């Protein structure tokens, strides 16, 4: 038997869960398809941004080493961009960790039951990931658009000559906004932020629906299950069930319970129950 970790059966982690019918064709779970699309957009954009920033960061670090090797007195200062790109990597990894985990948990264990503390932790992490990526996008944008590197320890002419001899990836300009990878990293950072915000909102809506609403499933899925359960109910039990419903209709004050379900959904549920009842199972009067 597959082990259970933190109340999650690991046996449900199967490759078949990744097929499109299960991921996007299954409408039984609240906001399932929307979350899968938005979560993946946030992951992709953030990863692309941090990858481009990492490539530019690597070039600037190699440029420092190259110039230092050519002239021990020269030093290329581009630490501001190195720091901004490094923080962008952290923000992207944090977003991928939170919403990547949310994606896999919803994929493999959509009907899981979480404690209040776990739900609070999800919300806190969602907000922190949004703020962290906003800070990364702002910092990367400001540094790339307004700053540039420079060479110290030698004259300006010699510094430009040393930098000009560095030809990795076609050269690494000291003016960051002239670096195509650095600019592309900024663009994808903002695309990532525009995906992280709705991801956080969807996370909150999903948790609130599980806490205050009908649960992780959609209303039509619950109605369909109720209709199926009624259709497969033994005749004797179904008769008593019908009597209870008639009593509820005749004396609503005896069985009234506040409900947040929409009247239209209730009417649809009633229709599904009647349509799902096999004619052969209906008792006839003799």
TrEMBL record:
Keywords attached to this entry: Membrane, Transmembrane, Transmembrane helix
Keyword Transmembrane helix: yes
UniProt biased composition (Basic and acidic residues): 239-251, 262-274
Domain of life: Eukaryota
Statement: the UniProt record of this protein carries the keyword Lipid metabolism: no
Chain intervals for the UniProt region annotation (Disordered): 234-286
Ranges annotated as spanning the membrane: 36-57, 87-108, 120-143, 182-207
Name this protein carries in UniProt: MARVEL domain-containing protein
Organism of provenance: Salinomyces thailandicus
């Amino acid at each position: 038997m597959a082990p259970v970790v933190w109340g999650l059966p690991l046996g449900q982690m199967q490759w078949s869960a990744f097929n499109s019918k299960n991921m996007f064709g299954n409408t039984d779970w609240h906001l399932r398809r929307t979350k899968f699309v938005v979560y993946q957009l946030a992951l992709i954009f953030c990863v692309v941004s941090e990858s481009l920033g990492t490539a530019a960061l690597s070039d600037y670090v190699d440029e420092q080493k190259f110039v230092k090797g050519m002239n021990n007195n020269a030093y290329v200062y581009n630490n501001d961009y190195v720091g901004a790109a490094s923080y962008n990597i952290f923000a992207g990894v944090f977003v991928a960790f939170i919403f990547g985990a949310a994606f896999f948990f919803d994929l493999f264990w959509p009907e899981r039951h979480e404690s209040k503390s776990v739900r609070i932790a999800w919300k806190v992490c969602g907000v922190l990931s949004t703020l962290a990526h906003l800070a990364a996008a702002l910092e990367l944008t400001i540094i790339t658009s307004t700053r540039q590197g420079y060479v110290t320890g030698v004259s300006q002419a010699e510094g430009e000559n040393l930098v000009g001899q560095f030809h990795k990836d076609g050269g690494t300009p000291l003016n960051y906004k002239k670096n195509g990878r650095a600019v592309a990293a900024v663009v994808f950072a903002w695309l990532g932020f525009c995906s992280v915000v709705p991801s956080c909102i969807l996370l909150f809506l999903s948790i609130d629906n599980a806490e205050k609403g009908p649960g992780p499933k959609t209303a039509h899925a619950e109605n369909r299950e109720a209709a199926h359960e009624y259709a497969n109910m033994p005749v004797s039990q179904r008769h008593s069930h019908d009597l209870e419903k008639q009593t509820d209709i005749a004396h609503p004050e005896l069985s009234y319970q506040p409900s947040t379900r929409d009247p239209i959904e209730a009417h649809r549920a009633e229709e599904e129950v009647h349509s799902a009842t096999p004619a052969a199972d209906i008792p006839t009067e003799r």
